[in-house]
Amino acid sequence: MVDALWTGEDVPASARKVLQNAVWGLRGILAGTADASRSVDLQTRAPGYRLSADPDQIDLFRFRRLVAEGQAELAAGAPERAVRLLRDALALWRGPVLADLVESGVTWPELSLIQGSRYTAMEDLFEAELSCGNHYAVLGDLEALLDAEPFRERVCAQLMLALYRCGRQADALNVYSRLRTTMVDELGLEPGRELQELQQLILAQSPTLALPGRIAVVPPRAAPAAEVAPSRPQAVRVERATAVIFRAEAVGGFGGASSVDDMLAGLGSTIRAETAQLSGEVVASIGDFTVALFRGQGHAKRAVLAALAVRENAKRSDIGDHPPVRTAVASGETRPGEDPTGLPSVNGTLMLKCQSLLRFAAPGDILVCDDTRAATSAVASYTRVGDPDDGWRVRSRRAPIAASPATGHEPELDVLESLLDWVIRRARPHLVSVLGGPGSGKSEFLSAFQARISRDGADGPLAVRMPPFAGAWGLRACILAACCGIEPGDSPSVTREKLELTVRQWCGDKGRVGATVESLSLFLEPGDDGYRLEGRQEAAREWSSLVTRIAMDRPVVVFIDDLHTTDDALLDFIEGLADSVGAVPVMVIAAARPELLDRRADWGGGKLHGTMMTLDRKRREEDRLSRAVS
After folding, report:
1. FRET partner for 319 with CA separation of 20 to 30 A, picked from 84, 284, 427, 523?
2. Locate the Bacterial transcriptional activator domain: which residues (predicted)?
3. DSSP state of 525
């Protein structure tokens, strides 16, 4: 005990006396225990002391027993029982083991082992919760544990799976990307095979990852032979669904009650028809509120398409200036039962999400939650309403997606699309570095992704392709020209007019429109190479302010090829571009040969919002050959 308490220190001469006094005080505490059944025996046994107690009185022993029982139930296919046992085990923890000694600097290997067993129990609990379909409930705990223990691959996999099942595929892939970057940078290792396979399953949206509607039944404990076993609880079906609330209102030229009644009746008929057309069900209709529920495959997409159809139908009428309906769409888990009419009912959580969104909807608005938006990005374009909790506003229906030319790197293109979705959802910048040798298809890869994001025209992200040898100043000019809609053949007068119109639309201080236009015109003057110092810093500040405002409404994607041939000033600018425009959805995709790392060994390293990709020429050629043969 002396060696354990004074490890690595000069043991004081009074050490044995200190211990004996402590033991004497402990004996007094134990002697005062009133409950004889919980007595603890402290004996003097050479070369020290022996403490005898019932194992159930020691929280560490109880923790280990409960964890073992929970693990056994999990292995036996009873995750509900496992959840209860593992939660009881973890509830015994109220801080670090022997916290008073730890605070005084005592470190024992046993303490690390015990803490490790706690992390393992938490992982087992998360696995059981995920098996029960409780992926929303464990997201926060999973994120907190991964922050504390960033190299625990099992936790990473569980968080990826939970995010995917919550409809947040891009976030799930970003978790993998962050872990891989950290492991490569700090350990020189790639993530394990199981984690890599999970990433591929998410990219492929494999049905094996989905949690189907399950029967959540808590099996009864085995009853003695002479007793009657307790009845089984009623099965509760859990499934993913999307709810829609339509709120009709009298707007425009209605003056009489009968006209209002006719309008509400007509709109109600439209809602029922469009909902049925897309295999949904109207589950409630009270006054000016109508609630529809969409279940089964593609429920979120069908719900948004129904909302768009109702809005378009209302627009075609002659009622007022705006469609007389506000709409909120929310996706999530529900446990639908049936009311006496035989119609399904919607649980409270999903309805609360809808009602919360409806507060921010204006006439003609369709607002959706994060989950719905993530699941429907292929059928509708969106803008953020305001704060993250306020949802997304549907701008328009997307045109059908045309197949992009095969490049041999389709999985990487899917990763880019997921990263872009994350950039837009979180309003955060991101730098993607695409490395590959000659013939690996880097330029073709950039063009293929640019074609993907350009399919929606003005409703899609703003794509900016940097011309060769533009430099840092020239790249700013390209981005500004794209934001203003300036074309290469525009005359100076047209260029100036477009710049002024853009500044008037987005400038926060209307009194500074003229000064801002004059400052930004430095970027667009023919032949200006950026070396004119006068006004250059002010122009850079105005550029950052304007681009930030525009990107918040329409995300910006910058494409840069042959980055390894550029000068150091441009490399510095690209690495700092995210900081220069602030927390906005700007994505920079830069392609380069591996020689870039000879110049900048730490390129992109240490950045939270950075991803490195490598294109393989051999795999690209094999993929193309395989398609040609088939």
Report:
1. 284
2. 58-203
3. S
* 499 within 8 A of 520, measured Cβ to Cβ: yes
607 in the same domain as 504:
yes
Angle at which helix 410-426 crosses helix 169-187, to 10 degrees, equals: 110
How many residues in total does the chain contain? 630
The residue written with tokens 């992390």 in the block is 119
Distances (CA, A) of 293 to 134, 241, 611: 21, 7, 39
Distance between terminal CA atoms of the chain? 74
Check whether residue 380 and residue 424 sit in a common domain.
no
Cβ neighbours of residue 315 closer than 8 Å, sequence gap 6 or more = 323, 364
Q: Which of 12, 33, 50 is the last residue of a domain?
A: 50
Bond prior to 47 in cis (omega within 30° of 0): yes
Do 360 and 452 lie in a common domain? no
Is the per-residue pLDDT at 529 higher than 60?
Answer: no
Please write the tens of the pLDDT for every residue from 452-509.
887 666 667 888 988 767 788 888 888 999 888 888 777 888 888 889 888 888 776 6
| Count of domains for the chain | 3
pLDDT digits (tens, 9 = 90+) for 207-225: 888 764 332 333 333 333 4
Phi then psi for 473, rounded to 5 degrees?
A: -65, -40
Task: Compute the distance between CA of residue 91 and CA of residue 136 in angstroms, rounded to an integer.
Answer: 20
State whether 614 and 529 are in the same domain: yes
- As a 3-state breakdown, the chain gives helix, strand, coil percent values, each rounded to 5, of 55, 15, 35
Strands 556-560 and 462-465: parallel
Could you give the CA distance from residue 221 to residue 514 in angstroms, rounded to a whole number? 79
Residues 570 and 421 in one domain: yes
E strand or H helix at 556: strand 556-560
CB of 62 closer than 8 Å to CB of 97: no
Q: Tell me what the mean pLDDT of segment 418-446 comes to.
A: 83
Domain, as residue range, for 19: 2-50
Residues 254 and 392 in one domain: yes
Instruction: Give 52-68 as a 3 state SS string.
Output: ECCHHHCHHHHHHHHHH
C-alpha to C-alpha distance for 482 and 499, rounded to whole angstroms: 10
244 and 307 assigned to the same domain:
yes
pLDDT per residue as tens digits for the range 126-169: 999 888 888 877 887 888 888 878 889 999 999 999 888 887 88
Domain membership of residue 217 (yes or no) is no
Residues 358 and 453 in one domain: no
CA distance readout (Å), 569 to 288, 470, 574, 576: 60, 11, 9, 11
> Measuring CA to CA, which residue among 151, 88, 146, 144 is closest to residue 121?
88
Angle between helices 257-277 and 299-315 (to 10 degrees): 140
